[in-house]
Specification:
The structure is a homodimer. Chain A has about 190 residues and is mainly alpha-helical. Chain A has a single domain, classed as Tetracycline Repressor, domain 2. The first copy, chain A, is about 75% helix and about 0% strand. Chain A is built from nine helices and no strands. Chain A is elongated and about 55 Å long. The termini of chain A are far apart. The mean pLDDT of chain A is about 95. At the A-B interface, helix 6, helix 7, helix 8 and helix 9 of A face helix 6, helix 7, helix 8 and helix 9 of B. Chain A binds a DNA duplex (18 and 18 nucleotides) through helix 3.
DNA sequence: GTCTATAACTCGATAGAC
DNA sequence: GTCTATCGAGTTATAGAC
């Protein structure tokens, strides 16, 4: 995994915030300059092109997300509880008028390099696998119905999450996502 | 409903295609000029600002969509079959590397006028209501389980559709959406 | 590593002729 | 209704001093 210094990390933080709120094409190096307090030419020193910035931002995001998912799994031993926690995490994202960063990049994918698209696929796969593992665990713990198809339930859970976020954010109603996810969890639980 | 002449309609067609593929902020009046063969200054004659274009485009899209939904309901008397048809419609969208136009605008909502956001909410409500009606019909026809909560099932179906599209398009795998929707339909059917 | 200065380009939008 | 011409601002990106 790549290492970034303070300045580079602050730039990535700002880029991440802009992307989650407005999208990757909706901010410029000038915006980052104003946020971080470093000239645009210096930003090009760290990230020669905006595509480089997109890739670094996505890689760092996925790495952090991977660590977060592991931490949740370590804290919470209940499979169903893990899914509840994940859902709650994204309700918070919506309540901040934000969207999943990779979901946002996914909507702009045709203006991004292939390398970024590959990373986006990696992210969705990572999350789906984690959800599938939680479902399997819940089945063993008899808190999730053994009758559900784990593969379908996992990809469906992820899709509901992303789609629900999109719609809830449009309506500025975090509770919309909350309700959908609660229903989905009820559907899974025994 | 507003009326547009040939040129205006061609401009809206091009804007719609660009939006569904690349996003609203990813094309310029110059792109439309090249597609339609009319100068950018003439485009401003029809749509003084790009926000006006966004609004007209969204309004026309919703009106067409409303008519399409009514046509499906008229052709197909089976509630479950209607949902199958809707799912198939969006699998086709993904296979063309496109995304739901209103879903795409929803991801760029913070750079759009309030008037457009209101229309986006209207779109999602329209679609969700139509889905709910199909579920209720399926229940009466005994092809859909009477045990499902119609309100939750409808909003969940819509969310899976939008989220599934986002992920399937990233992976360039229309069958990914197809599988998720097939599983969702199986879950609903008696 | 950060700066000033600037190139080269594209953007949305307007004025005014026809 | 469509055009030419143009403005002013914004964009990514680079050269070169410190």
């Amino acid at each position: 995994m790549k290492e970034f210094n303070d300045t580079a990390n602050q730039l990535l933080d700002a880029a991440e915030r802009y992307t989650q709120m407005h999208g990757f094409n909706a901010f410029s190096y000038k915006d980052l300059q104003e946020q971080v307090g470093v000239k645009t030419s210096s930003i090009h020193y760290y990230f020669p092109t905006k595509q480089d910035l997109a890739l670094s931002m996505t890689e760092r995001y996925i790495e952090r997300f991977r660590v977060n998912l592991q931490a949740i799994a370590q804290e919470q031993s209940g499979g169903l509880k893990r899914l509840e926690y994940l859902a709650k995490l994204y309700v918070d994202v919506v309540s901040k008028q934000k969207f999943c960063m990779c979901g946002m990049l996914a909507s702009d994918m045709l203006s991004l390099s292939n390398a970024v698209t590959v990373k986006l696929c990696e992210f969705f796969q990572l999350l789906e696998d984690w959800i599938a593992e939680a479902i399997e665990l819940g089945k063993k713990q008899k808190t999730i119905k053994t009758s559900v198809n784990t593969t379908w339930a996992a990809s469906s859970f992820l899709a509901v999450l992303e789609g629900g976020m999109l719609i809830a954010r449009t309506q500025n109603r975090p509770d919309y996502l909350e309700n959908i996810m609660q229903g989905t969890l009820d559907e899974l639980s025994v």
